[in-house]
């Protein structure tokens, strides 16, 4: 199975950068969706998760809120 993440970020979020850097470090490919540039994507994100903060990462069907390496590994091991 190929693992790929989707990371919702904003333009000024340091935790978003930490999350994408971490995924790079552990070689997990990802797509980045910037909610600052695409507010409609941000609205869809809130509708899907009920959360307004970023980063939010969808990985293996699980949602990870914030920069949370332990949750990344839990999703990868699932």
UniProtKB/TrEMBL annotation:
GO biological process, one term: cell redox homeostasis
Pfam families linked to this entry: Glutaredoxin (PF00462)
InterPro entries xrefs: Glutaredoxin, Grx-like_ET, Thioredoxin-like_sf
Domain of life: Bacteria
GO molecular function, a single term: electron transfer activity
Transmembrane segment boundaries: none
SUPFAM superfamilies reported for this sequence: Thioredoxin-like
Domain spans labelled Glutaredoxin: 6-64
UniProt-recorded name of the protein: Glutaredoxin
Naturally occurring in which organism (per UniProt): Sporosarcina newyorkensis
């Amino acid at each position: 199975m190929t693992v790929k993440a989707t990371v919702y970020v904003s333009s000024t979020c340091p935790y978003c950068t930490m999350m994408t850097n971490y995924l790079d470090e552990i070689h997990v490919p990802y797509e980045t969706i910037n909610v600052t540039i695409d507010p409609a994507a941000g609205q869809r994100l809130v509708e899907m998760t009920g959360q307004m903060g970023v980063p939010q990462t969808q990985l293996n069907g699980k949602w990870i809120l914030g920069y949370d390496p332990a949750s990344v590994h839990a999703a990868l091991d699932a």
